[in-house]
């Protein structure tokens, strides 16, 4: 009977925390009630109280169920926050990246923003997921420490030790031991893993470079196969992967060092409280249940204090990923500031006077560092003119065309267009999006912008009528179509859009002479009122243009040196005459 009286009060501390549902534990998955339940169970086992053991066993399933439900809810809330934060930040960064051609301009400036696609995808994922995990971990650690420090203090009490002929009393000795133990392990992990962030950042960068190299091989598979350069690509991939392997070796060394501390801590932590409580258990001042409760509480408190030990590798990886995302943001910030700054030379864009379709007013094109590429270009283009821009390689023709299209912002002067005009640019390598052929032809507009008959007609006019029946088929068209077919598909887009100004940058380089003549004549016949500005090296293209301007590469930047009529066309030429006269005086 005395045994039952001795252990009956245990039910009260078991039921009370169960009702409160106080969360604790290293992973937030244990109730304080379970900790007290452990004490009651071992005390009942110690005195062989079968009734108490059965009563506590009946309470265990509800405790487990409550713990599981609470942890599951935590996981749902945590992942919901991660998903929404990543979604918001990724959309924001992509919007900034795609604004005003910055995704293209990043290739033209210096800075730490290589492989932006890897930073936006993988680095962004880690940069947004980890902080939520860390916040939840810190909160859980704080709650655990707050809850179980009280348990340690109340159970352990004070410890009196003989020392130098006297006795020293340490109040709350288990709490002191847990704090000291955590300070030692955390300091050790911080010292040993001090280079973890740099190693993780380098690892992420070489991984991104390796993925980029693999992607380039896939995208240029036809050219590589035709040239039989598999061995060279294999050697290049081997060199790139060697960097990956080396960085993983460095990372493995860091993991080994931190694991040495974390695993040692994991093995030692459960033993320390048992050894500290052993004297009190042996002298009868602590029961077995109290020892087990103290050991469990000590492990939880130590885990809360030693949160850094368990999460240092993840903290380092998060730091590296966050810095890579931040570096991309800094580069985008620099482009945004340059767009708004008056100190950085930028080409202005405005409206022409009268009926002039396009005018270049003292336009200078320079690199991001200020180095001039094209200097003092003044040209007026009337509606319907077809201009051929000529010059030797490296004279800045394509750069000037990109400045006209708005892709190259640095320089001076202004590029003016007639109000409400539409410009359409055909590059040498047209972009073919994934999906159906219909989407590829309609790009950059939506696939349903034109009817099937309109798309069939456009394809037939550019010599791709045999693809008319496949417009709804989804296939890797970027790899299926040849270079010449891609360029003809781009002209089909041109016919569908019917723009006011057409900019051709080596847009027929992949076509044979006969096909090129057909395409150019077809474009002129179908769009007779369009203003055309072409960059090309083929002399045969002069027959399809009414005017030819020539750039000549000179020290300090290429200059416009000639402007001649290929066929008669009435227009105002006083702007160019003044420029040539001014250049003659300079020479």
From TrEMBL:
Any one GO CC term of the record: plasma membrane
Ranges annotated as spanning the membrane: 53-77, 134-155, 167-193, 260-282
GO molecular function list: ABC-type transporter activity; ATP binding; ATP hydrolysis activity
Domain ABC transporter: 358-579
Pfam families reported in the protein's UniProt record: ABC_membrane_2, ABC_tran
Membrane topology: Multi-pass membrane protein
Main location: membrane
Subcellular location: Cell membrane
CDD domains per the UniProt record, alphabetical: ABCD_peroxisomal_ALDP
Superkingdom of the organism of origin: Bacteria
Keywords assigned by UniProt, alphabetized: ATP-binding, Membrane, Nucleotide-binding, Transmembrane, Transmembrane helix, Transport
SUPFAM superfamilies: ABC transporter transmembrane region, P-loop containing nucleoside triphosphate hydrolases
Domain ABC transmembrane type-1: 118-317
Similarity comment: Belongs to the ABC transporter superfamily.
UniProt name for this protein: Putative ATP-binding cassette transporter
Organism: Neorhizobium alkalisoli
């Amino acid at each position: 009977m005395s045994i039952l009286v001795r252990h009956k009060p245990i039910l009260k501390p078991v039921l009370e925390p169960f009702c409160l549902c106080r969360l604790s534990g290293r992973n937030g998955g244990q109730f304080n009630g379970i900790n007290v339940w452990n004490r009651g169970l071992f005390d009942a086992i110690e005195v062989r109280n079968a009734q108490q053991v059965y009563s506590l066993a009946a309470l265990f399933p509800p405790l487990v169920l409550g713990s599981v439900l609470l942890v599951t809810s935590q996981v749902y809330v945590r992942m919901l926050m991660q998903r929404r934060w990543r979604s918001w930040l990724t959309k924001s960064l992509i919007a900034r990246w795609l604004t005003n051609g910055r995704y293209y301009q990043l290739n033209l400036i210096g800075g730490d923003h290589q492989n932006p696609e890897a930073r936006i995808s993988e680095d962004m994922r880690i940069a947004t997921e980890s902080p939520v995990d860390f916040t939840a971990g810190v909160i859980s650690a704080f709650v655990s420490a707050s809850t179980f420090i009280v348990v340690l203090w109340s159970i352990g009490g004070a410890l009196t030790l003989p020392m130098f002929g006297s006795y020293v009393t340490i109040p709350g000795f288990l709490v002191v031991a847990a704090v000291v133990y955590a300070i030692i392990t955390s300091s050790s992990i911080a010292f040993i893993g001090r280079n973890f962030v740099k190693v993780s950042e380098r690892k992420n960068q070489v991984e991104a470079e390796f993925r980029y190299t693999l992607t380039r091989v896939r995208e240029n598979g036809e050219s590589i196969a035709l040239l039989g350069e598999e061995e060279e690509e294999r050697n290049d991939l081997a060199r790139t992967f060697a960097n990956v392997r080396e960085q993983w070796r460095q990372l493995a060394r860091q993991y080994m060092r931190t694991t040495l501390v974390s695993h040692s801590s994991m093995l030692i932590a459960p033993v320390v409280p048992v050894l500290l409580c052993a004297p009190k258990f042996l002298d009868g001042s602590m029961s077995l249940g109290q020892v087990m409760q103290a050991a469990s509480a000590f492990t939880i408190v130590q885990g809360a204090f030693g949160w850094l030990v368990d999460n240092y590798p993840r903290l380092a990886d998060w730091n590296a990923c966050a810095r890579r995302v931040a570096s991309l943001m800094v580069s985008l910030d620099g482009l945004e500031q340059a767009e708004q700054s008056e100190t950085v030379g930028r080409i202005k864009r405005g409206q022409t006077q009268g009926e002039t379709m396009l005018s270049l007013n003292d336009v200078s094109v320079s690199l991001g560092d200020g180095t001039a590429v094209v200097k003092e270009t003044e040209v007026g283009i009337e509606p319907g003119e077809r201009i051929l821009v000529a010059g030797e390689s490296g004279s800045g023709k394509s750069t000037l065309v990109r400045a006209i299209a708005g892709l190259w912002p640095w320089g001076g002067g202004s590029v003016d267009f007639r109000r409400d005009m539409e410009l359409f640019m055909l590059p040498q390598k047209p972009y073919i999006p994934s999906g159906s052929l219909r989407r590829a032809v309609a790009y950059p507009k939506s696939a349903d912008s034109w009817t099937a008959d309109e798309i069939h007609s456009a394809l037939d006019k550019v010599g791709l009528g045999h693809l008319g029946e496949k417009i709804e088929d989804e296939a890797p068209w970027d790899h299926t179509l040849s270079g010449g077919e891609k360029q003809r598909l781009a002209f089909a887009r041109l016919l569908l859009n019917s723009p006011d100004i057409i900019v051709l940058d080596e847009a027929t380089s992949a076509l044979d002479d006969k096909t090129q003549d057909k395409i150019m004549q077809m474009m002129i016949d179908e769009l007779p009122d369009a203003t055309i500005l072409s960059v090309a090296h083929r002399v045969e293209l002069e027959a399809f243009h009414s005017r030819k301007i020539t750039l000549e590469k000179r020290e300090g930047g290429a200059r416009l040196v000639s402007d001649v009529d290929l066929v008669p066309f009435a227009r105002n030429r006083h702007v160019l005459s003044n420029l040539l006269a001014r250049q003659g005086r300079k020479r």
